[in-house]
Specification:
Strand order of the largest sheet: 15-16-17
Helix content: 10-25%
Radius of gyration: 46 Å
Distance between the termini: 139 Å
Shape: rod-shaped
Oligomer: single chain
Number of strands: 17
Order of helices and strands: HHEEHEEEEEEEEEEHEEEEE
Strand content: 25-35%
Largest sheet: 3 strands, antiparallel
Length: 238
Amino acid sequence: MRLSCLSIWPLLGMAAMSGCASDDCPGCECRSAEDCADGQYCDVGTHTCVDACNPKSCGELDRACGDWPDGCGATLHCGDCPAGRECDADGQCECAFAECSGTCCAEGQVCDTAGACCSPGCEGRQCGPDGCGGSCGQCADGSTCNQSTGRCVADPQCETAADCAAKCGSAVSYTCRADETCLCLSGTFMSSGGPARADGAVARSASYALEADSFDGMAPPEGGASSAGFRLETTLTQ
């Protein structure tokens, strides 16, 4: 029960009243919790009675890690995560990378078909299986994956030069290369002519400036530049 100076005055008389007047905290509502009602405490800074605050626990906040407000103006530390796990925005320890069957995997690992952590083997490979049940990539149209090397290989275009006729169209010349791709030679006519031979035949030749796109998107033959020239020779017999 809290007693004020006024309430005890009739009992103690003027001497008691004189004692209250000489209190070193005039106007204070309280000096200790005993001066406050149940469920309140005395704020020693303001000497006023305020409702008591019950700080929350990590369990009540459903937090397993990190620092969180306890609801009473203080910070509550709910622990740290073990190696391989990180504290997420909800205060839960989650795997830093992939998680397979409850196990945290290392960086770069994925879950294989058995649900275990697996390191894909795609270094130097363009396509084919990655060893973990996935793929290292897909080849573009016109090429096929060599499963053993993991490299994309152009689909065969020809077996002989004749197979390149339709593909090369109006090219000056064409041939089937060793890798079974067509080499289409097209260019700009530069000059023609040639001396007669001793046997009476006339060697005719034509010079062309090779165009940059003459190789069907592939590099020119080794040692040749895209701006190089080439000659086609035919022999006419008189």
